[in-house]
């Protein structure tokens, strides 16, 4: 059974979190993400969960990490300035392999920028924003339904890979209202528990250690310092650091095919749009208005880890066109994986590319 | 067929709510697709407010309103900011009590605010009168769908008043 609603993207995100069993939200309201905190504040206490309005975003992500280590599914939601403040602790979550979900309803930056306007300007920040080497997962919905579905998925990926997982949405999808179908229940996959006799940061072939949250009866030491498989600091041995950080990166990067989530239209095409988030909808409109097998579309629902193999699914591609609501961020990733020309179609200021704008670019590059 | 409907008035009239109610009627009760968006700026109560809805029989891909074919305008400032450039083939419903200007396109004058204040006794339902008039003047959603969407969206205890306002709007729209 399910129910159908006409709902805002941010509300659907909160519904997805609740359906996925999220029972902790620590956050500091910020436009254009505030409706997520509002919905969680209303709904979590009734669901037996905890909502804390924290003093700032540094504390918000810290509280989320703490809650996750009690075994709860935990999340926060923010936008540009708050996301920047969270960066250090996001690295801590990556280093401590803390499963948690961070929603970024992107707005125009830098700084306080355009609080009420859409952007995709934090796509490299979510990949590289904290110091040191690490790898995480970033999901990019393009509809209200996907705000629900992909929030559920974010929790599953966070748990499975024990990484902070980002739902990188934006003001357009966060604030639009559309029909959304909400199932009564969703399947949930929690982290694999730490096996008896295993060390808490020892991993097998998949490079992901079993999880023993506080209160599970196992003694676990958790630190942001470089640590050994027991979790104890070992900060000077080059090999210990090399082994740990390479594993943190590899557990995500070596599972790229498994994590990948994308749509392909017209794989025989010569001119191929590559999109994520709402610009994909402009491309879909252009392709409906101008049916033409020589125009293809690769739409990424997950941008990080980057599925470079998806680009090879267009063997006849002569040129890739990439509209983004920034000055050209993920386009760099496309450029380094293909030999063909890759054309960035940047747009900043807060509005989505119009179909006419993309048709003009299309005509200039065929 | 794709319709793009734009509502504008001043903050506090229920402009955004009107757009949400219309989208809800189409998406939940008329078996169509709808996307509702709004200008989400730092508008203060009293400033120009704007909400939009795209309604289509097919899934809606590009979600923004490019060129509205239907306008509902409830303030002079709203007209100047969001209605003055309406295309010639558009249709505009204006609250005749609050908008002095008239557009170059087909225009229906709906005395929504004076009806709400007078016959209905509550100025706050003027937006519901406008929605009623919109539905009968354009047929963009069915009467049954809009009735259900209004009932979903108004506070408990005000259902009767809002339905009365909607029906008054139906009559004004039919006559227009």
Automatic annotation (TrEMBL), chain B:
InterPro entries: 2-oxoglutarate_synth_KorC, PorC_KorC, Pyrv/ketoisovalerate_OxRed_cat, Pyrv_flavodox_OxRed_cen
Alphabetized GO MF terms: oxidoreductase activity, acting on the aldehyde or oxo group of donors, iron-sulfur protein as acceptor
Protein name: 2-oxoacid:ferredoxin oxidoreductase subunit gamma
Organism for this UniProt entry: Methanoculleus formosensis
Gene3D superfamilies assigned: Pyruvate-ferredoxin oxidoreductase, PFOR, domain III
Record flagged with keyword Hydrolase: no
Keyword annotations: Oxidoreductase
UniProt keyword annotation of Oxidoreductase present: yes
Residue stretches making up the Pyruvate/ketoisovalerate oxidoreductase catalytic domain: 11-171
NCBIfam families: PorC_KorC, PRK08537.1
């Amino acid at each position: 059974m399910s129910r159908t609603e006409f709902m805002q993207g941010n509300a659907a995100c909160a519904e997805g979190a609740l359906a996925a069993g999220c029972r902790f939200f620590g956050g500091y309201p910020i436009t254009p993400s505030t409706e997520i905190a509002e919905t969680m504040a209303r709904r979590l206490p009734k669901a037996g969960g905890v909502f804390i309005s924290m003093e700032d975003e540094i504390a918000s992500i810290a509280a989320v990490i703490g809650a996750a280590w009690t075994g709860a599914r935990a999340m926060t939601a923010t936008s540009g300035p708050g996301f920047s403040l969270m960066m250090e602790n996001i690295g801590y979550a990556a280093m401590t392999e803390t499963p948690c979900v961070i929603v970024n309803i992107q707005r125009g930056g830098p700084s306080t920028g355009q609080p009420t306007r859409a952007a995709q300007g934090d796509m490299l920040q979510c990949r590289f924003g904290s110091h040191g080497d690490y790898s995480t997962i970033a999901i990019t919905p393009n509809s209200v339904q996907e705000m629900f579905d992909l929030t559920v998925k974010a929790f599953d990926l966070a748990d499975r890979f024990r990484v902070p997982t980002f739902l990188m949405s934006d003001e357009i999808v966060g604030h639009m209202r559309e029909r959304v179908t909400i199932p009564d229940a969703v399947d949930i996959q929690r982290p694999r528990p730490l096996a008896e006799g295993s060390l808490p940061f020892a991993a097998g072939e998949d490079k992901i250690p079993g999880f023993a949250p506080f209160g599970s009866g196992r003694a676990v030491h958790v630190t942001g310092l470089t640590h050994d498989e027991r979790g104890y600091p070992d900060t000077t041995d080059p090999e210990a650091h090399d082994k740990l950080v390479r594993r943190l990166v590899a557990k995500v990067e070596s599972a790229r095919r498994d994590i990948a989530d994308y749509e392909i239209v017209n794989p025989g095409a010569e001119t191929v749009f590559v999109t994520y988030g709402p610009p994909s909808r402009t491309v879909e409109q252009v392709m409906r208005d101008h049916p033409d097998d020589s125009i293809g579309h690769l739409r990424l629902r997950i941008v990080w880890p980057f599925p470079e193999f998806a680009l090879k699914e267009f063997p006849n591609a002569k040129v890739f066109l990439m509209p983004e609501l920034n000055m050209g961020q993920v386009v760099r990733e496309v450029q380094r994986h293909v030999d063909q020309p890759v054309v960035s179609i940047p747009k900043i200021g807060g509005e989505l590319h119009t179909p006419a704008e993309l048709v003009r670019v299309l005509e200039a590059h065929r | 067929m794709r319709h793009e409907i734009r509502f504008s008035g001043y903050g506090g009239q229920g402009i955004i709510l009107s757009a949400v109610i219309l989208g809800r009627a189409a998406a939940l009760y008329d078996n169509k697709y709808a996307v509702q968006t709004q200008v989400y700026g730092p508008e203060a109560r009293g400033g120009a407010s704007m909400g939009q809805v795209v309604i289509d029989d097919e899934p809606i891909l590009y979600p923004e309103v490019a060129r509205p074919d239907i306008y509902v305008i409830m303030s002079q400032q709203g007209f100047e900011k969001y209605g003055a450039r309406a295309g010639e083939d558009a249709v505009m419903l204006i609250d005749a009590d609050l908008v002095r200007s008239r557009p170059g396109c087909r225009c229906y004058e709906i005395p929504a605010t004076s009806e709400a204040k007078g016959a209905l006794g509550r100025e706050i339902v003027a937006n519901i009168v406008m929605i009623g008039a919109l539905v009968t003047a354009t047929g963009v959603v069915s009467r049954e769908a809009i009735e259900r969407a209004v009932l979903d969206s108004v506070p408990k205890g005000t259902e009767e008043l809002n339905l009365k306002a909607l029906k008054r709007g139906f009559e004004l729209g039919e006559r227009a």
